[in-house]
Amino acid sequence: MGGRQYDAVVVGAGVIGLTVGVCLAEQGLRVQVYARDLPASTTSAVASAMVEPSFSPGAVGEWERAGITTFTELAGIDGTGGTVRRGRLAARNTSEPLPGLDMCPPEERPEGFTMAARATLPIVDMGVYLDHLGRRLTDAGGRLEQRVVTTLDEVAGEAPLLANCTGLGARELVGDPTVRPVRGQQVVVTNPGVDEFFLSSPYEPEWTAYWPYPGRVILGGSQGMDDENTEPDPELAEAILSRCRAVEPRLRDAQVIGHQVGLRPSRPSVRLEVERIGDSRCVHDYGHGGAGVTLSWGTAREAAALLLAGSRTAV
Ligand SMILES: Cc1cc2nc3c(=O)[nH]c(=O)nc-3n(C[C@H](O)[C@H](O)[C@H](O)COP(=O)(O)OP(=O)(O)OC[C@H]3O[C@@H](n4cnc5c(N)ncnc54)[C@H](O)[C@@H]3O)c2cc1C
């Protein structure tokens, strides 16, 4: 890969940057990851995180299916933070069946919902999972260093291959005005014995969701376009609690043990494309919005393939 210090530099150490780093390092490349925030302080660490069902057409549908398959495989391996759980997907404004899923009988539909279907999907404990990715990166010879990168040119001299996985940071790093924050707030409660998830149609005003983990349940959801306030809003927390308790009465006995807020890196579509920066070939992989965990493996494998295919001829 030439005489530079590394074969690849990845900027960003959320779920996207770490997954791209793992894909490249596990193919034998010398990978350096630079990140302003270390994994535990990223948006990725705040994700619930459910690997969402695949209903999208085209490339996004393929990335979604790659996520479901890979996270289902990881769920069988200790220390990954992955598990597979049964639960319900529901909506208040449609009775249209969800393709490929078993519809719930009316008695399993919470009050106010017009549709509910059963699904079995992976759920990821992000703290454990980001540690797992970090270990895989270093086990494959990759390195992670805390560093703010102000322009991609600044790191182009270090490696022939670059990956820009800066999420919301791409607004400043590459001046992309289409990347916008969507604030998400969640309430964390003790787990009174809940072992199934519940997810209503995201982004409706009364969006209701909960995801069980060992010892805790994460309750959502919320979305605040262009809201960058990372302090929890107590009124919103009460509304989330009350909506979730209406669906799962056992949550009335749960104690609140935390609040978390994250800014989803939304964009009209994920940016996954190659650009030449100085003498390096750079792949941009950012703008995953509320589905970065779900899309991480599909987009990271494609990002790595784009870099490596080009590197044989262009770099
Ligand atoms: C409340 C909430 C719930 C969610 N639930 C789900 C879910 O259930 N399922 C799902 O799939 N997704 C979910 N998401 C979405 C998911 O969290 C994001 O899509 C994903 O974390 C984005 O990952 P990322 O690596 O692109 O960004 P981030 O995790 O934000 O990481 C970006 C990295 O880039 C670094 N960086 C930025 N700029 C620079 C710079 N100039 N120099 C150096 N480093 C830089 C940052 O420091 C960080 O390390 C949720 C999000 C929120 C907020």
UniProtKB/TrEMBL annotation:
A GO MF label: D-amino-acid oxidase activity
Catalytic reaction(s) noted: a D-alpha-amino acid + O2 + H2O = a 2-oxocarboxylate + H2O2 + NH4(+)
Stated name of the protein: D-amino-acid oxidase
EC class (word): oxidoreductase
Keyword match Oxidoreductase: yes
Stated family: Belongs to the DAMOX/DASOX family.
Record EC number: 1.4.3.3
The protein's required cofactors: FAD
Keyword Oxidoreductase included in the entry's annotation: yes
Domain of life: Bacteria
Database matches in SUPFAM superfamilies: FAD-linked reductases, C-terminal domain, Nucleotide-binding domain
Keyword entries, A-Z: FAD, Flavoprotein, Oxidoreductase
Pfam families (alphabetical): DAO
Organism: Pseudonocardia parietis
Ranges for domain FAD dependent oxidoreductase: 7-306
PANTHER family: D-AMINO ACID OXIDASE, D-ASPARTATE OXIDASE
InterPro entries in the record: DAO (IPR023209), FAD-dep_OxRdtase (IPR006076)
Annotated Gene3D superfamilies: D-Amino Acid Oxidase, subunit A, domain 2, NAD(P)-binding Rossmann-like Domain
